[in-house]
Amino acid sequence: MNKSRLYYLIVALFAVCNFADAQVHLKIEPITGAANTYGVYAKVCENISPSSNTITGSGQVTIKFPTGLSFSNLTSHGGTWMQNAMVINPPEAPGKVYASVGFLSDSPHIFYFSDSESLLFTFKLNGSVTTAPELIANGVDPFDQLPNSASSNPGNELTVLDFGVQPLGLYTYTGNFSGNALDCSQVPQDTTTIITPPGDTTTQDTTIITPPGDTTTQDTTIVTPPGDTTTQDTTIITPPGDTTQQTSSVRNLTNEAGHFTIYPTPAYEWVTVKFADPTTEGGTIRLYNLNGISFGEIKRGQKQEVILNVSGLTSGMYLIIYEKGGKTLQRDKFLKQ
How would you write 243-283 as a 3-class SS string? Predict the structure, then answer.
């Protein structure tokens, strides 16, 4: 199945299917026989039996360790992962380093098991390690209180679709574990995608924020869905001077052009569109929900990164489309929480 067909299949499934929701946990553990090397593992709850026909759609892991150590030798084992944020000694957590590793693609394919762990990636800490690294606890860690001092979006997330079970399986990150035992009694963290039912053309209000000192006006065009005669007041927000790389991208399901990546996902307030080739310029970035309702557009200009404020959007899956010269160069999705 090609990427384009797969993308539209996933969109349709989100819109019309009921999910068998289940939990997936993450842990960090030393690698035996490899000094200062650690692995990050995933495991689903024992009450389900994942099939081999899964698709991992998005993910991020944030690792915390003491200052004085450096993070290196990131090696993907299940899926493709990339370090895309490093915050050292933030005021919220003095003496700590936060390294966020983002999920790029489900290649090599990640297989999930209820009776064993799946190794996602390994990494090494350089220096005198006296305190083991740990995965942060979402919403509990002092640095994971948004907005934080680095305008970063740390946290752990994993979203998996299982096409080999009935009803369609949806496995979402719900917490960390150690050893072999999972606590599957806790309520999963809210990573559920909310889809607007077919025919619902109600609008969501967003606002545009311009960076301090920027007196330019951005041109925003609204695309009205078929049959909708209402006018949508929509604006896109640019945050104040934040150029930090924050979290993960989601895999591009429509093509392999690789013009941009999106992070963070899930997004809470801001989402960054980062272009791969800084020498290119121009084009338009458009934001839609999965029903094709537009929430505005913004001109890329000469920017390598374009940052959108999505804080006014409801939770759910959204599309970002990059167009230039009358052609769609890439489209990609992200999860808004």
Answer: CCCCCCCCCCCCCCCCCEEEECCCECCEEEEEECCCCCCCC
